[in-house]
Amino acid sequence: MVAMERGDLLLADALTQSAVTQYRTSVADFRAYSEAYPEEALGYDSHALALLRLGDAEHAWGDDPRRSYREAIISLGEVLKRAGPSADPYRNRGIAYAAVGRAAQSLCADAQQEFERAAEDFERAIIANPEDADARYCVAEVYAALLSFDSASSEHASRMRSRTIVHVRRAVELGWVSKGQLASNPNFRPLQADPEWMEFLRDAGE
Predict the structure, then answer these.
(1) pLDDT in tens, 76-109
(2) How far apart are CA 64 and CA 47, in angstroms?
């Protein structure tokens, strides 16, 4: 835990390479804990959170973070096996799948399947906790990302646009995101020419 906290401080100060080193130490510590106490969900959950932070730091440093994110996905699966379905591990696994998808996009790899898996887990998190504003905002970003794989006029694209707006609207209602952040979020660029999205932004800004 100390190494992870040090990593957070280093990353906040833009000392990315040092943060990566601290997160790797934290990952190794939590892996050892989960191996020593394999029946406990806590070790796997802490391991997964450390891997998510490591992946973020690797991405910021310019390394390929997909291995860290994929390992986090596996650990979160172990959490769900031991603790049962709940919003947090589903949301965190959705974050990991979405991160793999975005990393794959930047490397010109196939990302659609990863975004679809992310959407499934975010929706599971929302079923477990309908007031989970974080999951709603994250799944909206994923549905927006999925628009890039479809013709804008397709029925599937229309569903993705509608789901994006539904979940963002609810996230705003729950107070998760300020209205001014929506237009500047690059993850919503696939909707920037969509009339319904523009109308939503105008309404949100009122």
Answers:
(1) 999 999 999 999 999 999 999 999 999 887 655 6
(2) 19
